[in-house]
Amino acid sequence: MTGPSSQSLREALEQVKRGEDYTLVGSQQEFESSNITLQNPKSIDEEIERQKEIFSKLKFIYLEQETRDKFLRKISELTSDEIDKNDVKLIEADCMEKKAEFKTLKNGMNQQLQSLHQVTIDSVDLYEVYQQKKQKTQELIDSVADLEKEIDKIFEEGQLVGDQFLSLAQYASEDTNLEQVLDLNNQELQREKVQNSQLENELIQRESDLAAQQATIELAVAKLRDLKVLAQSSQPYATDDKLQKYAKWCKEMNEILVKFTDLQDLNLKCVGEDVFQLDFTDANSTPKSLRFDMSYRILSSDGLSGDFRSDSMDEPEFLQEVAGLLRE
């Protein structure tokens, strides 16, 4: 049986939860410890409207004070001859400049609010997805641990059966029915082997599912990290062109496959328009390859003996399918 144990998978999950690079994993604690009075980041629209109302009230107070000042100037004892018209023009020009600057700042503020609003919604949604994937991963780890305990128990029972076999052999040596005793014992051993094989196959399948779930979490956390940087800089989303997007995806896919398989020599590259090829070498130094398109549909394979799906898949299904082929 190959593949990581439940303990190593549990430690890997804890490392993801504690990792400094995954800053959004701790975003819930940061939000709760901040001075914001919101109960949920999704209600930021209500907070923005409340702040706008406060701003409108302050603006009204300012206009009221400005009107009062103008009124007091009108009823003062100063005559028009005592007021320098050039000063008045300078003040009016300065007011117009300040109003234009205020309008520019207000428009910039509205743009920043829209950008932050979208980032907040995306961050909350991705954090919820991360929590769900983490829960599923934890359940798979617990299931793998239970299977390991069952296998250990079966090995212990097998040792007990061996001791019983020795006792029966000793007893049968004193009797004439030794051949019948050996047949019964062989049948029991065959049943134990079948049961062990079934449990090992089930454990391998669980580990493959767990690797696919872990890979999905890695991708989700990477996207969360990008959103965190975007939220801190308060900048609109950066748009990558097609080549940059898939170059980044190829790099992430290489890292995930190397981490969750026993293979060390992996190379994912683009070989045509929307067509990618995964080259790797097995333990016997035999080169193999796998081709697929943008919809995660496997087109062909070279050197792989197992059957593979030829229909379109989503990313988690594709990772699980590739992980299964690499283990064969």
Automatic annotation (TrEMBL):
Keyword Hydrolase: no
Organism superkingdom: Eukaryota
One GO term describing the cellular component: kinetochore
Cell division keyword on record: no
Pfam families found in the cross-reference section: Sos7
Domain Kinetochore protein Sos7 coiled-coil: 53-120
Listed GO biological process terms: attachment of mitotic spindle microtubules to kinetochore; protein localization to kinetochore
Keyword annotations of the record: Coiled coil
Coiled coil regions, renumbered to chain: 130-157, 182-216
Classification via InterPro entries: Sos7, Sos7_CC
UniProt cross-references to PANTHER family, sorted A to Z: KINETOCHORE PROTEIN SOS7
Name used for this protein in its record: Kinetochore protein Sos7 coiled-coil domain-containing protein
